[in-house]
Amino acid sequence: MTSSSSSSSSSSCSIPEPPPIDKGEPVYPHVIQHLQIIKAAPEVIQIIGARREYGIAKYKQELKTEDGRNEIEDCLQEIADGIQYLTKAYIKKNANIKKLKPYIEAFTNLYNHFVTEEKKEEK
């Protein structure tokens, strides 16, 4: 796993990434493998498949490792959007907010899994 020491400023979170290029290894099989390792809920695995299909329809390819986009920047932008949507649901007292729990847990557990794996690789 590679790491970068550069941090993102708040202004860079609004800069769109370029369209992806068709280069690199598909990410989907790795996502599913790691979600199974962390024992993610079935609905999480199901939505990942649906999002993969959406990406193929929109970009004419699935997410790939060398697609010319900055994966950390993309992730930061998506997390920032998710935080806003979560807060909107809270403000509106949306009872469906509890449906988000398995997805948030999977995200957190996956992050912790990757950090743990990275520490093992460093030794």
What can you tell me about this protein's structure?
The chain has 123 residues and is mainly α. The chain has one domain (20-122). 58% of the residues lie in helices and 0% in strands. The protein is built from four helices and no strands. It has helices at 28-37, 42-59, 71-91, 101-122. Helix 1 runs antiparallel to helix 2. The longest helix has 22 residues, at 101-122. Mean pLDDT is 90; it is low at 1-9.
Brief synopsis:
With 123 residues, the protein is mainly α.
Rg, Cα atoms, Å? 16 Å
Helix content: 55-70%
Structural class: mainly alpha
SSE arrangement, N to C: HHHH
Mean pLDDT: 90
End-to-end Cα distance: 13 Å
Rough shape?
globular
Strand residue content = under 5%
Total strands: 0
**Count of DSSP-assigned helices:** 4
Overall number of domains = 1
Main pleated sheet: none
Poorly predicted regions are 1-9
